[in-house]
Design brief:
By secondary structure, the chain is α/β, with parallel strands linked by helices. It has 20 helices and 16 strands. Strands 1, 2, 3, 4, 5, 6, 7 and 8 form an eight-stranded mixed beta sheet that branches. Strands 9, 10, 11, 12, 13, 14, 15 and 16 form an eight-stranded mixed beta sheet that branches. Helix 4 links the parallel strand 4 and strand 5. InterPro entries: AccD/PCCB, AcCoA_carboxyl_beta, ClpP/crotonase-like_dom_sf, COA_CT_C, COA_CT_N.
């Protein structure tokens, strides 16, 4: 029996190497913990019979959906096969994606999408278009409930671009990813304009100019690794606490180097990211939107193992002024932290809002209102530290006394409606002009104004802030005060939702 041809053939079949997995399935497997991916609807096929589509079918219809674990945490995941009909999104795609979104909402697990789609499948017309409206709806319903991360691994065009734009984070690969509604060929026919994919939707464009991309990386492997890192700061859902990671990095002691990183002179630039690295857990700071609106820095870090969100003015870029893009960037980040229960630390070093006709005409007031609204609406623990200066309307925006639980300042900081120099030039213009030594008179008045109103010591004496922190105390003080606030009760009245300017 053992020598029969049938048995020998069966044995040979069993020992043949397995065929290589399609790229999109392999990327999902590479992302998740080993042997944890469980695919759903793997045999699903499209049912379109028009325009030759009936002759082109593949199991799964060019998208893999399912669930697995990532660092031991359950997640749902889906990924497009860009090689099958251009990764175009069919009615079956929408049904499969909708199913895993339903699972995520029922079980409270994060959603990770690997996107590579040429858009809604034209062969299917309104069938695909109508069904994808349910995907958009469910993505919005999941927003602020479970973390949603979109990895763009190729072109993502037209209707397919909307889904990642609705999620919490977009990771793009430089010179590989593209997000746009109408491609170069359509634009050329409609307007005669000759453009490239990079110019209208490349990763660098969306990371640095539009702000649509939160991260720009150099390879698909780096995108997958970044996804694992990013999720480590986020809770499973909006009812769970953010992860707390203990280890050597969380036990680090503060270093006197923090004091040397902040110049005493109010107008000298410095790198605020170096300051952040100086007091958070070692190598724990993950910057978000690093290339967009660089006058403000936002990102995640850990303090004593606890995940927090950080918003910080960047004095080395536009002097740390707030402008439209910076306000929009920070507002969205604060709202994301609030949605998922991450405490917010704000490091304030701001001369005010960026002046100029372009900013005013483009509605800097509305953008600033969005940022103030985000801080005032957020119910998570909020601590602000004034590093050197907090002037004008930017101060009650970033460190609103009613909205912020605790406000501190470093020694020598100034808090005022205007910088002492500017205030004196307005109030004492005639006095200075009439003085025998105008410059000496101006310097004296500046110091008088600083002591009368602008010094952080004055604000502390009036209880406008909680007090002064020595730089070497910063880390331990923040850990202790966030621990105090960890069970904060919001106490807000019930309402459907707030309203904000367009």
């Amino acid at each position: 029996m053992s020598d029969s041809p049938g048995v020998r053939d069966a044995t040979r079949e069993r020992t043949l190497p397995a065929p290589p997995l399609a790229a999109h399935r392999q990327q999902i497997i590479d992302l998740l913990d080993p042997h944890s991916f469980h695919e759903l609807d793997a045999q699903a096929e499209h049912d379109c019979v028009h325009f030759g589509a009936a002759a082109r079918k593949v199991a799964g219809d060019g998208i893999a959906t399912g669930h697995g674990t990532l660092d031991g945490r359950p997640v749902v995941v889906y990924g497009h096969d860009g090689s099958f009909l251009g990764g175009s999104s069919s009615r079956i795609h929408a049904l499969k994606i909708g199913k895993v979104l339903d699972i995520a909402l029922r079980t409270g697990v994060p959603v990770i999408a690997l996107n590579h789609s040429s858009g809604l499948r034209i062969h299917e017309g309104v069938d695909a278009d109508s069904q994808f409206s349910h995907v958009f709806y469910k993505t919005v319903r999941a927003s602020g409930v479970v973390p949603q991360i979109s990895i763009i691994l190729g072109d993502c065009i037209g209707g397919a671009a909307y889904t990642p734009a609705l999620t919490d984070f977009i990771i793009m690969v430089d010179n590989q990813s593209a997000l746009f509604l109408t491609g170069p060929a359509v634009i050329r026919r409609a307007t005669g304009e000759d453009v490239t994919k990079e110019e209208i939707g490349g990763g660098l464009l969306h990371a640095s100019e539009t702000g649509l991309a939160h991260f720009l990386v150099d390879s698909a492997d780096e995108a997958l690794a970044l996804t694992r890192t990013l999720l480590s700061y986020l809770p499973q859902n909006n009812t769970a606490r953010p992860p707390h990671l203990d280890g050597p990095a969380s036990q680090r002691y503060p270093t006197p180097a923090v004091a040397s990183l902040v110049p005493a002179e109010k107008n000298l630039p410095f790198e605020v990211r170096e300051l952040i690295d100086g007091f958070v857990d070692e190598q724990s700071f993950l910057e978000v939107h690093a290339l967009f609106a660089r006058n403000i820095v936002v990102g995640f870090a850990r303090l004593g193992g606890q995940s927090i969100g950080i918003v910080a003015n960047q004095p080395s870029w536009l002097a740390g002024c707030l402008d439209i893009d910076a306000s929009t960037k920070a507002a969205r980040f604060v709202r994301l932290c609030d949605a998922f229960g991450l405490p917010v630390l704000t490091l304030v070093d701001v001369p005010g809002y960026l002046p100029g006709r372009d900013q005013e005409r483009a509605n800097v007031i509305g953008a600033g209102a969005k940022l103030m609204h985000a801080y005032c609406e957020a119910t998570v623990p909020k601590i602000a530290v004034v590093l050197r200066k907090a002037y004008g309307g930017a101060y009650p925006t970033l460190a609103n006394r009613s909205a912020t639980d605790l406000i501190f300042a470093l020694p020598g900081a100034e808090i005022s409606v205007m910088g002492p120099e500017g205030a004196v030039d307005v109030i004492f213009r005639k006095d200075i002009a009439a003085a025998d030594d105008p410059q000496a008179r101006r310097n004296l008045l500046i110091e008088d104004y600083r002591q009368a109103h602008a010094s952080a010591e004055y604000s502390a004496s009036r209880t406008y802030i909680e007090g002064l922190l020595q730089p070497e105390q910063l880390r331990n003080a923040l850990i202790a005060n966030f621990a105090l606030l960890q069970d904060k009760i919001s106490g807000l009245p019930a309402r459907r939702h707030s309203n904000i300017q367009l």
